[in-house]
TrEMBL record:
L-proline 3-hydroxylase C-terminal domain span: 182-282
Key words of the record: Plasmid
Protein name: L-proline 3-hydroxylase protein
Domain Aspartyl/asparaginy/proline hydroxylase: 29-175
Top-level taxon in the UniProt lineage: Bacteria
GO molecular function, one term: 2-oxoglutarate-dependent dioxygenase activity
Pfam families on file: Asp_Arg_Hydrox, Pro_3_hydrox_C
Stored InterPro entries: Asp/Arg/Pro-Hydrxlase, IPNS-like_sf, Pro_3_hydrox_C, Pro_3_hydrox_C_sf
Amino acid sequence: MRSHILARIDLDQKRLDDDLAYPAAVPRVEEEYDEFSSGYWKNLSLANSSGQADDTAYVDIDGSALTTEHGKNTPYLSELVNTVFDRDRVKMVRARNLIDAMVVSHRDFVDLGEDNDRYFRTFMVLEDNPQAFHSDSDTVIRMRPGELWYLDAAAVHSAVNFSSQSRQSLCVDFIFDGQRDEASIFRDLSSYQPDLSPEIRERAAFTSDLEQRLLRLSEVVNRRNFKDVLFLLSKIHFDYNVPGERTYDWLLDICRTAGDDQLIAKAEMVRDYMINVRALGERFSINDWVSVAA
């Protein structure tokens, strides 16, 4: 697992609570990467390339990200970014929330066509929730409030909140122009503490019997429940010791056994889009069957 804790930030709970009331009240709107999620997943741009609050796309920019209306309405979060990080290096800032929902296993930055090690994403949970987890390929972690993580978004990763309790977080992106130097993102280099221990989720052994039971979904899968099957399979690695990318192997095997060419084509499209390759600006709908060859 390349994802790891970078620092431990002391949070002012009163000021934080005041700020978190704002993104909680902002209506959720469709954003650039809705195809990755199921349930309630909200992303608010606090700073981005355009300075527009409704701009949720991540793009390469020269200079630092511009504060949006959302960022101005969350002064404590904006202050955290300005005081913890070298603000000149910040490329995007987002407030995120995941409630009774998940983000399926996927890779980011595959559509940017460059060395993924240039892109550096940090993530900090702002609300504690024992039912919310992140995964990094074959490891599942529970992030605790104030832990500032490097999130290896170029690896296969996923997130889930099994509860209806809010779990807001702060996501800040950087780009390295030269050699990768984690400490350089901080305003004060003494903040960098890469040796803190994470909370790793204990998972049950994944057995061949369980895999065969999953593959029997071939008996019921169809176009109407294809998305349900995908998200059911995506939850397995949070409870069992198996990598998240296996989701797409199971999905393809299930569709092949079902013998439906459209299901097979769709499963291949989902796998390629989520973890292999996609074009810059390419969008994908799990529920769209018109574009799937008969």
